Every structure is written in structure tokens, then in C-alpha cells.
Input
Amino acid sequence: MLIVATGNGKGKTTAAIGQAIRALGHGKRVFFAQFIKCDGYPSGEDGILRNFGDDRLTFIKGGKGFVGILGDKLPFAEHRAAAKKLLAQAEEAARTEHYDLLILDEINVALALKLLTSAEVTAFLDAVPATCDVVFTGRGAAQDIIARADFVTECTEVKHPFHNKIPVAAKKGIEY
Amino acid sequence: MLIVATGNGKGKTTAAIGQAIRALGHGKRVFFAQFIKCDGYPSGEDGILRNFGDDRLTFIKGGKGFVGILGDKLPFAEHRAAAKKLLAQAEEAARTEHYDLLILDEINVALALKLLTSAEVTAFLDAVPATCDVVFTGRGAAQDIIARADFVTECTEVKHPFHNKIPVAAKKGIEY
Output
């Protein structure tokens, strides 16, 4: 089953974390890979997700940070190489049949930014055993991904602190 | 800060679980109350959330199950009494100033079903210290809640397995 969380609203990654916790609570095994995000940007979930131990939960922040914005100076090819490597790790994880749930956080963004090609993502999905569920998150999900998905939720931002004309910095424990 | 997750799509409760994990990871303390939901309907997250210990995370399933549907025979007054009791517990938790995050899962539904009144919920929100964040989840959030909120995300169901004309039972580890 392919589950997609997309849209510009808050709650896609947090829902993926919740999905991982729910699956772990049922005794399932989870592979959780984050595209774009990297170890230099710690999030509240990191420590807890890493504490489950690798047999239950594999958690990899495999990105290289923001792409082309906010002072990013890394060559695009390096961002792409990191995304390709992470997708290959996810595909290997799928092939082992060790995991019940594969979460590819921000993969929709990686695809939209052309860090991955549609063909590469399709090849990954083709490699996933039928017994394994897959979650894709990130705004701007591609139409072919939506067409292939079983569950699609669009998270729409109805209201954000910034829109109240009070720009606020991202809040620790809430947004990361 | 009041954060609301509403809409008919999947991901509201799972995002709340993720939010709790994120906050716990930052060393914060979380009060997590579920309306409607009750212990007779175990979810994957229950065991893990309960394992954090009451000092870090208080987790209460304070509902009495589905209201008026799916064979519910409980008098409405008992559903309402349970919701009022849970809201009172949340208000007490807010007043202790022990918690950094109060999550009231499915409170939007409790309000829509008239298990709680708008005045009761407003009184709760008025009792929350400014240092404490609040998350409300559930479809059909009331307009006055949305007006008061800082963050609002609407999760819209774009695609669901049932809509593919293949009715599927709720899947363990995915939907509960």
C-alpha cells in the first residue's frame, strides 16, 4: 500500500513520525529515510527514533540540506548523489523483506527538485514487496505518484502565524 | 500557540503523535488526551506513548467509543460526562504549568457532537498558560476555534482505498 501525504500545510512529517510510532507499537519494523534533511539540522524526533535500535527502526537523515535556497552552496550534483544513495538504501531495505513499513520523508520534494527522476522512484516502488507499506511525504507530489497511491492526503495550510502579519521563527518542538 | 488539525483526510491523529514525539525529543513534557477513543480499541501508539512515564508524558484515552454509530448503545449523557471529565483533566494539567504541550485529540469531533459546549472549550483555552502549546485534532473544527488558532491545517482526503471500489478494512499499524 502506497500512502502519500502532500500539500503545503503542516503535519506531513509529523504524521509520518506518528505512523512509525504506531507501526512500532504493533511490533512492526520500520525503515525511515529523510531526503533533503541532514544531521546538521537536528529535530526533536531524531533521538527518540534512533533509540528504538536498528533491528526495529532504521532512521537515516540522508539529505544535504536545503537545495538552492537559504545560502546553499553545495553543487546540485552532490544533492542528487545523496538522494540517489538514499533511494538505493531504501530499495535495498525493501528487498531484504525485513521491514513492514518504509517511510520516505520529503521524497516528493526530492522528485520535484529533480534530485530523483520519476523512473528511479518507479523502479523503487516496483521493488517493494506487496507485504510492505510505503509512505511518501512532501509538498508537490507528482501526478504519477498520486495515480499509483492507495491513500492520498493533502494537508492545506488554512492559517499560519506568519499570515497574521506576525512573522515568527520556526518553533522548536513544534515545527522541528 | 493553538494548533488545529482538521479535515476529512488521514493524518490528524498520526500528526499529533508525531508532534508529541518531537516535543518529547526536545525534553518537553506532554499531556495527550484522546476524546471519543477508549481503551477497548487499542491503537499501535498506546504502548509506546505509555512507556515514556507519567512525568514526561501523560496519555489518557478518555472517551467511551463511537457516539451513536456502529452499535453504540451508551446513553449520550455518559459520553458527555466522559468528555467533560477529560476536559477538566486537561484544564487541571494546564493549571499545573507542568506541561509544555497539551494535545486534545478528537476534541473537534467531541465539540461537533455536542459532547462539549463551545463555552467549555473556550474556558479551557483561557486557562492555558501562554508558555504552553495546545493541539486540537479532529474533523469539522468549529469556526470559533479556527478563528482563535495560530496554525490550522486541513487534511483533505484525495484518495482512499475504499474509493477505488475495493472496500478494505481499517489496516492495523496504518489506520490504528
Notes: The beta strands of chain B are 2-6, 30-34, 57-61, 101-105, 133-137, 151-159.
